[in-house]
Amino acid sequence: MAPAARKIIAKASAATLLSIAASLGLALTVVPWLGGVVDGNAWLMCILCPLFIAFPASAWQFRQTQRLSDARAEVERLHRQLVTVHGELAAAHATLLDKARHDGMTGLLNRESFLAALRQAMVAGEPGTLLLIDADHFKQINDSHGHPAGDAALRALALAITGAIGAGDLAGRLGGEEFGVLLDGMALAEAGPAAKRILEAVRRLRIDSPSGKAISLTASIGAAGLASGLTVAELVAEADEQLYRAKIRGRNRAVFALDMAAVA
Predict the structure, then answer these.
(1) Which CATH superfamily is domain 111-256 in?
(2) Which of 2, 34, 134, 255 is paired with 111 by a 20 to 30 Å CA distance?
């Protein structure tokens, strides 16, 4: 017999015994007061009536109470399970959203997310500088050392960039070996030291190749300042023009808009 059933029988039995005791007590009190006599039939009725009425009634009542308690417990269990599942779904959604916003190779913002952040910064109207960073002669790494070495170089380049910028700045991979950095709150005229830190961090890189020979890297940077009236496309085009100027000037340098001196 299940523990719940034994508990119901025990409680119904206790209720029946109390009912019999109450019935006998009433008979012994009320019948003599009315002038009657409690005989054998009266004793029998005082026992049988509660036995056949109180026991099934109380057993049914206790059973219903138990079922209600079980149903309430099941509802609470399902609610806790629903809360857990909802939390897991929220975490999974956040993970998917994070993956959708970031580049799988480097962990930086992908092109769409970086440009969206850049657009938001331009709408806010705060000072800022866009740096377009391109690894120099990157095709030679893939051709000479293979794509795994090229992938390692991209990851190392991303780490070098993020390690050289501030906590409030943003970095993203725009495609291939091209990266973007948004120097938040930093006007174009103030961005030279940040560009220099990035160049120096890239120069210090040494990537292991399958042949055991260390691969070194340099980068070229084009910079343009956020300005009212510019669109994202125009800003990127301006920085890209400066990046082109850095390439034709010999690479391994940063060139700013407004004919600023190159940062080597």
Answers:
(1) Reverse transcriptase/Diguanylate cyclase domain (3.30.70.270)
(2) 255
